[in-house]
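Model: Ready when you are.
Researcher: Fold this.
Model:
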Amino acid sequence: MNAGWCGLMAVLAGGMAAATDAPPLGYFAGAYRVAGQDAAGKPISGTASIAEHGTTAGSLSLRLCPGGSGRLQVRDRVEEPQSLTGTLNGGQVLCLFTSNADNYPVLSCRGPGPLLLVFWPDPQGDGCH
């Protein structure tokens, strides 16, 4: 293999490794609109706030209105590079995230039973206080 190909392979490999790095916690902080179904299977919609948790390093606080709170952590794992894990109202949740066209995070979460939630960014909203 010539030096040019080796250099290209190194750049591509470095780019792939960087793609698995987790974003900073502040990326997720903000107000969201939420829709889905609760753990009992009932449809819900409302607002949510996600903030960096001041006392637990590497953690996010989650407030859901109406009713609900929890904590999330970013998973920096190669096999699941864009996910968060944590709890909501005492149950375990797994959230996958992507970015919308304005580079805000969109979260799709699955919890115990039929719990399914989508968090859509609401930059002009005040979330859940």
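Researcher: Now this one.
Model:
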Amino acid sequence: MINNEIKLEGYAYKYELRNAPNGKKFCRFGLKFYNGKDKDGNSKYAFVSCKGFDDYALSDKEKVIVNGSLSQSEWTDKQGNQKKELQILVSSIDRSDFPLR
């Protein structure tokens, strides 16, 4: 069995709390994280979408460590196009102070 548990530190952005059709609350937000350096030595950053079934009440640019697993969501947009997105399904968030690059 392969363990797909993810632990990623970064900055939260565009946090939103939503209600599913069944009334259950969930949140969506992005995570900006350090992704090495380019050929000129400049820091590079990458972005990933996150989804959780709790109200983590994050603010923009808040430093967090996200724990969860990779999940792929699929849907059809308003124009009828099939869409896919790889995201982190959040199991917990650590707000401990830690250094970020």
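Researcher: Key takeaway?
Model: The radius of gyration is 15 Å.
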